[in-house]
Amino acid sequence: MKSINLRKKLFFLFFFLVSAPFVMRAEELKSPDGNLLMRFEVNGEGTPVYELTYKQKPVIKPSRLGLEIEGFSLRKAFTLKGVETATFDETWTPVWGEVKAIRNHYNEMTATLHQADGDRTMVIRFRLYDDGLGFRYEFPQQKSLNYFVIKEEYSEFAMAGDHKAFWIPGDYDTQEYDYTESRLTEIRGLMQTAITPNTSQTPFSPTGVQTALMMKSDDGLYINLHEAALVDYPCMSLNLDDQTLTFQSWLTPDAQGKKGYMQTPCHTPWRTVIVSDDARRILASHLTLNLNEPCKLDDVSWIRPVKYIGVWWEMISGKSTWAYTNDLPSVHLGVTDYTKMKPNGTHAANNEKVRRYIDFAAKHGFDQVLVEGWNIGWEDWFGNSKDYVFDFVTPYPDFDLKALNEYAHSKGVKLMMHHETSSSVRNYERHMEKAYKLMNDYGYNAVKSGYVGNIIPRGEYHYGQWMVNHYLYAVKKAVEHRIMVNAHEAVRPTGLCRTYPNLIGNEAARGGEYESFGGNKVFHTTILPFTRLMGGPMDYTPGIFETRLENVNPGNNSYVHSTLARQLALYVTMYSPLQMAADLPENYERFMDAFRFIKDVAIDWDDSKYLEAEPGRYITVARKAKGTNNWFVGCTANEDGHLSNVSLDFLDPGRKYTATIYADAPTAHYEKNPQAYTIKQMKVTNKSKLTLRAASGGGYAISIMEQK
Question: For residue 9, what pLDDT is reported?
């Protein structure tokens, strides 16, 4: 009996040794501080598998990697040909940003995989930072893998529990949804109500969600899934298997249903997992920027942060119109003669009104004035799948392009160009050179572009590879003309502003304009910094003081789900080098004491400190203005409000400061009493502590100026 058992043991040992080349031992990679550990192996099927832990807590359980290609698979039958490791540590200076210097420190593992059948090689590169993991697929040039078409990418993120998540529906065309807070297993049941109407939308799954996805585990881990450096590749969403709690990458298809067209040598964007047991470290992470390439511009002297106002909110509220006349059922550019049309009397982009905005900007120190509806075609711009919809160069009869720009420049102000494409993208590309040249001729240096509606070429989606390439084409073309770009309805950012810092702003989320379309959820601005802003700044358009829209347009019953004090705080909590004072000048003139903060607050920073943070609940941020010793603090809270005990220990020792505190009054409430605020001044030092209360849907803002 013992002899038989011995023979069995020897047989199994022999079998294991023979099979060993196909079952690779796990390779390990640690973060520089040792808190994160990533394990990688090729399993018995030849499938790449990784897992991630943080302080020995599971973040990503064993998860498979690979892609399905038309004609063959890059998911199985791999052998690990080699593993290389490296360490990298640098500090780089952003052109603009939340801090004046960013450390880029990671440990790297490069795994080279080979498929004998087909003789194909694929590389998976992992970079592990103290705050998270990035990985991507790389395809060296090779005879057997040159041009190929992606059917789907199969990158998995297996969750370790039924986490609380802050999510919006997966969609190929829009991110303009309110966030839903739920357990992962509840997503399917809540999806139908989470999908609200939009001008262009294509949901893809009852459990599909978009990145950046923010989660919190029951054992106190904050986990964020996103991507970095999205170039020449479709945008990634996530599809959840709610039985196994595993997310799989889900790429946006093109008009033919293809996911991506590749030519070696090439690589995918980075897939990112940011993790911490402190929510503040999620907000402070620079991992997304660090995974992007350094700035490609030789000269960045023309790129400057912008604080602006605009002829915009009165159209958004319905008080005024973009269109010049009501007498045109349709428009034929180059044929329709607007000089023979009767003005409707509600067109906002007229000479008299724009001059008033210019005067207001000059008086109060704003850099630029955005003007929407200045160019012909707005009578017939949306909903008709129209190709030749705008020419981007011809003004309406009541908008004197040359005279208004000269007037603005005489006041030390620039006008900001507006290019709404109506998603006729090929029309925009055919006019882009001429449109940018016009901007150069009249001294414009920034453009707000828009992509409202379904894409032309018809059948393409906002987030497919073709459109991803278009958005970057527009930014690169703008570099040639020294123009800064603020794209709305474009794909959500993935840190490309490091490489192309003239990409100074993006929308790509449900912004402040929706306060005029029924309102955003009260907790919206306590989530966006954990989600949308993980990839780059947002042109959220804060600063709405008249929160009852019926007082601007009697036909609009919407109201802003925020107190006035929180509107001030958003200039600090919603980071952007492009900040708009979005309300009407006459509404600011009613509250000039509160408007003082908008005038004072900086838009470029030497340092940022996240003092308090809990997604969906509250965020408190302190930022140091570029080149000064002045600080600004902002707090935004959900419907429960928030009580802060803030230490000012971030101030320089030995210096004295004057703090001006703009806070919710004791009776303030986002719905019942939104305009109740208090303003007080006090002397502070780095030893001072403040106790401040944010009302329901409220917040506070503080300017801290060094005493001279």
Answer: 44
Is residue 405 within 8 A of residue 399, CB to CB? The reply is no
Q: State yes or no: pLDDT of 101 exceeds 90.
A: yes
Is the pLDDT reported for residue 5 higher than 90? no
The predicted pLDDT at position 1 comes to 42
pLDDT, tens digit (0-9, with 9 covering 90-100), for 33-46: 999 999 999 999 99
Distance from C-alpha of 317 to C-alpha of 325, rounded to nearest angstrom: 19
Beta bridge partners of 82: 112
Please give the share of the chain, as a percent, with pLDDT higher than 90: 96
Average pLDDT, the chain: 96
CA angle (562, 567, 572) in 5-degree steps: 130
Do the bridges between strand 677-684 and strand 657-664 make them parallel or antiparallel, or are there none, so unpaired? antiparallel
CB 285 within 8 A of CB 101: no
Segment holding 487, helix H or strand E: strand 484-488
Q: Phi and psi for 530 in degrees, rounded to 5?
A: -85, -10
Asked whether 158 and 246 are in contact (CB, 8 A), the reply is yes
pLDDT recorded at residue 21: 40
446, 414 Cβ separation under 8 angstroms: yes
**595-620: per-residue pLDDT in tens?**
999 999 999 999 999 999 999 999 99
Please count the other Cβ atoms lying within 10 Å of the Cβ belonging to residue 168. Answer: 25
And the tokens for 695?
Answer: 């009302």
**Could you tell me the pLDDT band of residue 12, with boundaries at 50, 70 and 90?**
very low
**Residues linked to residue 249 through DSSP beta bridges, in sequence order:** 238
Distinct helix (H) and strand (E) counts, the chain:
12, 37
Residue-level pLDDT at 19? 41
pLDDT at 262 over 50: yes
Give CA–CA dist 247/525, Å, rounded: 25
| 644 vs 702: CA distance, rounded Å | 13
Cβ neighbours of residue 154 closer than 8 Å, sequence gap 6 or more: 64, 65, 66, 67, 68, 75, 248, 249
User: What are the start-end ranges of the H helices in 221-371?
Assistant: 279-283, 287-290, 313-316, 351-364
Q: Are 514 and 525 in contact (CB under 8 A)?
A: no
**Is 639 labeled as catalytic in the residue annotation?**
no
Laid out side by side, the sheet with 368-371 consists of 503-506, 484-488, 446-450, 414-420, 368-371, 306-311, 578-580
Q: Where are the alpha helices (DSSP H) in 284-370?
A: 287-290, 313-316, 351-364
- 41, 176, 314, 513: which is the annotated catalytic residue? 513
List the strands of the sheet with 208-210, edge to edge.
27-30, 36-42, 48-54, 57-64, 156-159, 246-251, 236-241, 208-210
Reported confidence tier of residue 8, pLDDT bands at 50, 70, 90: very low
Distance of alpha carbon 340 from its chain centroid, rounded? 44
For the chain, state the CA radius of gyration: 27
- If you search the block for the tokens 């897939």, which residue do you land on? 271
- H or E element, residue 681: strand 677-684
The whole-number pLDDT of residue 25 equals 72
Cα-to-chain-centroid distance, residue 567? 19
Q: 147, 161 in Cβ contact below 8 A?
A: no
Please report the DSSP string for 491-522 in residue order.
PPP-STTTT-TTEEEE--S--GGGGGTT---T
Two tokens, residue 163 = 């986490």
Cα-Cα-Cα-Cα dihedral sign, residues 214, 580, 470, 389:
positive
Question: Cα(263)–Cα(555) distance, rounded to whole angstroms?
Answer: 54
Average pLDDT in the 471-490 region? Answer: 98
The confidence band for 22, taking pLDDT boundaries of 50, 70 and 90, is: very low
Helix, strand, or coil here: 703? strand
**How does 199-210 read in b/e, with b if 16+ C-beta sit within 10 Å?**
ebbbbbbbbbbb
Beta strand segments in 354-413, E: 368-371
Q: How confident is the model at residue 703 (pLDDT cuts 50, 70, 90)?
A: very high
| Cβ 252 vs Cβ 172: under 8 Å | yes
CA–CA gap between residue 242 and residue 236 (Å, rounded) = 19
